[in-house]
Amino acid sequence: MKHRGYLIITPEKDVYGGITTLELNKRWNYGNGYVSTPTLGDSIRLNGWDAMRAFEVFSSESKTETEMAMRGIQDLAGGHWIGKKYKVLPTPPDKTAEELFGFTPSKSIIVKETVTPLNNAKMKQKQTKKMQPMAVRTAAGVKCELTLDTRYLRQDGQYPVTIRMYQNGKYKYLQTGYSSTPTTFPSFTPAEEDVLMKRFDSVCSELTQQLTRNGITDIMSVGAETRRTSTLEDVMAAKRDMMDTQATRNNYTSTLKILAKIYPNGLPCERISSVTVGRVLDWLNTNGYSPASSNIYLSAIKASINYGIYKGWVKPEQYPFKKNAYEVDKVVMPQSPKRDDHYLTLDEMHKLWAHFQETKNPYLGMFLFSYLNGGMNIADMLKLKFDDFYFKEGGFRFQREKTRKKNAFKTAVPVTKWTDELLRIMEIEPQKDCYVFAKFLQMDKDDAKNKANISTYINKTMWRLSEMLYLSRKVSMTYARHTYCTIATKIGAPYSMIETAMAHSLGGVSSHYIGGFSMDEMRQWHEKLL
User: What is the rounded radius of gyration, in angstroms, for the C-alpha atoms of the chain?
Assistant: First the structure.
């Protein structure tokens, strides 16, 4: 069993050290395991988990060896150390404090056996500020509040908006499907506020009926009944908070908003059936959603219902989706059309490149950048930086956001003469550690909103150009990736090189094969893409 020693360094330059036998990502859990930790928890709530610098410093089969290494690091950290203390002899690490922490800790501060007190005024204000509820009701002697549940920090840095019920010192929480931050709560759009208040009033009314009908005076005694009266929205919100990627959580949030339009007061779990879920599919079809989009929303509902069955909130016989050919009255998942022909020819790519040189359209430029760099996705492009690898090796190195959970490795693509020319036309000057597409990022928006906005602009641009340039397809951003794969294959590029550039598996070849091609070798093939 591996004992891993790790450090978490806050933006305030406080150092937390710990030892775990778990995989580090599971132990860290986006900061959720440290919310109640003094100083560190305050920093995570204030700055978000992404602002923390977390990494492994030592690992061994021996717990004692790991503790000795961590004690040596603790001594280096001086008064900045806020982790637990290890009662063993110190062993100095093989790295300097500057290499470990990124700053030189003060040696004049004596390490105390208690945690370092808060020294940040914003943190103190954050810790003492009481969260005011959005609405308060009293139902059958139970105090109900529509408030922010600051016990659970989500991976996107927000907290769930919940209906909190209080009676005799005990609490119960119901999810609403919405989330916010302490600084923005309770600021919602009028439509969102209307949905939240309807949900809140519905729960208060239903709670009164339950307590009055059953004659129960203790809210904690209505567990089974409460589960039966919870809604599909509650189950979906719980399932959403378990998701690892922001894109998946956004899909669940979008599905919850659609459900709110169809069932303003929520869909109780006991009413889940092929009829009620079929009504969602009918609404999607009526409002012009494509089969692919409908499949995404229904998949979120399907996964949530499976989770509800697992938790006992939904009965197995209520399952609304078709499992086999004999179930004729069940909901059938819409099938997306195949994308075998979702690519452009090399001549059509020449047309787009010539138009880009003439017009300098930035969104066409981003489409071409994706094509020239292995069909890179928008989410990866927006996180791309001019790092050391760019200046030393002449390439871009990145970890694909879509598959980062399954494939932890980073892939690389070469910078070609076409990429250099594209950046020159777009007036993007390479600067150390700066984002490549910094001019497209709106700093007041999160990654998901930036991605959605830019994807929309690119798609609208490509739809217009498809007609203007008489292309054979109505092109969208996904064509860049499919076109790269198709043309790279036609010009004879090795499959293993294509999959390395795409960070994807082709023809059963392991996607973990990386490093088999140098940047110069990959560049020779990528120069032939135009």
Answer: 27
Residues 6 or more apart in contact with residue 214 via CB below 8 angstroms: 222, 225
Which residues, in sequence order, are bridge partners of residue 58? Answer: 5
Domain boundaries, the chain: 3-123, 132-214, 230-337, 346-529
- State the Cα–Cα distance between residues 355 and 464, nearest whole angstrom: 13
Query: Looking at the predicted structure, is the pLDDT value of residue 168 above 90?
Result: no
3-state secondary structure string, 356-389?
HHHHCCHHHHHHHHHHHCCCCCHHHHHCCECCHH
At 198, the pLDDT band (50, 70, 90 cuts) reads: confident
**pLDDT more than 90, % of the chain:** 16
CA distance 129 to 119: 16
Please, where are the H alpha helices in 29-168?
40-47, 63-77, 97-101, 121-128
Let me know if 147 is exposed, middle or buried by CB neighbors in 10 A (0-12, 13-18, 19+).
Answer: buried
pLDDT in tens, 89-127: 445 555 666 666 666 554 333 333 333 333 344 433 443
Residue carrying structure tokens 């079809």: 285
Note the CATH architecture for domain 346-529: Orthogonal Bundle (1.10)
Alpha carbons 52 and 39: distance in angstroms, whole number: 13
- 180 neighbors 159 (Cβ within 8 angstroms): yes
Amino acid type, 373 = N
Q: Which residues pair with 16 in a beta bridge?
A: 8
CATH architecture of 230-337: Orthogonal Bundle (1.10)
3-class state of residue 478 by DSSP: helix
Instruction: Please answer whether residues 187 and 138 qualify as being in contact, where contact means their C-beta atoms are separated by less than 8 angstroms.
Output: no
Give residue 88's pLDDT: 46
